[in-house]
Fold this sequence. Notes:
Strands 6-7-4-3-2-5-8 form a seven-stranded mixed β-sheet. It has a seven-stranded parallel β-sheet with strand order 12-13-11-14-15-10-16, with helices on both faces. A six-stranded parallel β-sheet has the order 17-22-21-18-20-19, sandwiched between helices. It has 24 helices and 22 strands. It folds into four domains: about 45-140, CATH 2.40.50.140; about 205-245 and about 650-699, no CATH class; about 255-445, Rossmann fold (3-Layer(aba) Sandwich); about 455-615, P-loop containing nucleotide triphosphate hydrolases (Rossmann fold, 3-Layer(aba) Sandwich), CATH 3.40.50.300.
Amino acid sequence: xxxxxxxxxxxxxxxxxxxxxxxxxxxxxxxxxxxxxxxxxxxxxxxxxxxxxxxxxxxxxxxxxxxxxxxxxxxxxxxxxxxxxxxxxxxxxxxxxxxxxxxxxxxxxxxxxxxxxxxxxxxxxxxxxxxxxxxxxxxxxxxxxxxxxxxxxxxxxxxxxxxxxxxxxxxxxxxxxxxxxxxxxxxxxxxxxxxxxxxxxxxxxxxxxxxxxxxxxxxxxxxxxxxxxxxxxxxxxxxxxxxxxxxxxxxxxxxxxxxxxxxxxxxxxxxxxxxxxxxxxxxxxxxxxxxxxxxxxxxxxxxxxxxxxxxxxxxxxxxxxxxxxxxxxxxxxxxxxxxxxxxxxxxxxxxxxxxxxxxxxxxxxxxxxxxxxxxxxxxxxxxxxxxxxxxxxxxxxxxxxxxxxxxxxxxxxxxxxxxxxxxxxxxxxxxxxxxxxxxxxxxxxxxxxxxxxxxxxxxxxxxxxxxxxxxxxxxxxxxxxxxxxxxxxxxxxxxxxxxxxxxxxxxxxxxxxxxxxxxxxxxxxxxxxxxxxxxxxxxxxxxxxxxxxxxxxxxxxxxxxxxxxxxxxxxxxxxxxxxxxxxxxxxxxxxxxxxxxxxxxxxxxxxxxxxxxxxxxxxxxxxxxxxxxxxxxxxxxxxxxxxxxxxxxxxxxxxxxxxxxxxxxxxxxxxxxxxxxxxxxxxxxxxxxxxxxxxxxxx
Length: 699
């Protein structure tokens, strides 16, 4: 029944079916059933006209239609009706479809009316209300939470409005029997979590009679989404652990020891040592490592990655590190090359900009095994890149690489795939890590290197700008350097350059040469010019660096101790945290000054207060998820993992944790889901796999 093409549902037909397919991806009865409302309108009680207030929003009324007339000329032409109940009168207004509406209205008839209140002066009206003549059924049916479905202009214009969509769902639900929607959770789970059965939950998510029914249906269906996702990820992980052998790195050799003795710039933190032990255990297990390494900005992830690569080299293997942008890849290359100087390790850099004879030579040396470590962008996973024996592949992800790119790295080595270590540049909230990287083991560096003072963050309004300039002068007099960062809006490079240019000119007036020197860096500059300016700042020839967010990653200037961020309200939290991570790299106390306009939205203020309150990247990531939702976290939606129908990672962390714990428990006891009570899980996963196959073919 659920696989029946949508055109065979009464009220749809071929034309509407085409629209539903194109606009909503609804191909079958089952797709329509799982197209959930995104909000509900409370139609559980009729309101009295006298008690209505402008802020009431959508209201349900019952009354007699008195007088209907067309008023106004041209664009102001409208149809006005008056609805009266025992307590008062309200105007109903139509601006479009006037002849059709007028023909169907009966003056003196009693109507059930629903719509959104609008206030003009002290008079209330309802533009384009939904209206039905009173009859015993609709008076009763009206008293519900009415579903409101995600829609498009095209659907509304073609008559597939909310009213018709509700009718189609109601028709479908009338045809369905409990056996059409078999239970997909084990009975003991449904009972212990006090869930309604699946059939009831799906009926109540569309047409709940009250708040309690809606809440119970939501809880059940959200759990279902998150539970099956975790079940899939954990089965994948288990399957990989059992079936994917990995190279065994038996020895900790000369390169690792020499680096530790001679090159390590500081004592490793306990957290770094713990993570290295976890990685070593994986590398010696004979199974392929798949590990996520999380750590805050500046917590020392690069050192851990580098020491892991040296373990590969000591066991006769090559290693690679893939970063999402050229700037970041270049930074890793510079840092790692500097660390390894004099150890006899050949490090090379590869990106799309490495071309011609140089590229050819590099690829040859790599295939012959003369290059030990290759660092670069996703150019690393392209076809012509061949390693002699790749043992460890590290990706620095920043939520940018998907599962597909990681899989492409697998093919770069045989007979076994390389060990995989995934680093994230910004901490990821727990719920998101469980979802995006639920098939990986997780290591967390939750300690900062000793001697690092937390950056002090302060908020200044535009009206306090002169105080900010004064503070910059004091710091420069102490021999420190300052970043001034402007936001970058992709759509409007010209506007950004104008902002940057005006800011630069204002700074030149406040900090005139020759006493002060200012560098400028922005995205439109040629790489060589950008590099020249960066180098001047690094050498201390300029005291102020004016930049767009290109300095977010890839700059390490220990003497820069002040970060001024202009128009802070235009940045997301994790971006602000990344920028703040550019200072606080030396021994001096560092500062981050957040400059904003004098008017701020509630959300912007909350972001700024969070920044001033804490330096903890994990806390900031959680707040960012709560404020912006997961869709905004750079490109995560493209991974497909996060396109939930109902679940919301920002709000449903508790449900997710319960779902993962229960999925783990079930798989520990019954890895192949062979027990009779797990038959519903097995059946549902098999059907889900078939569905996914169908969708990938359509896609």
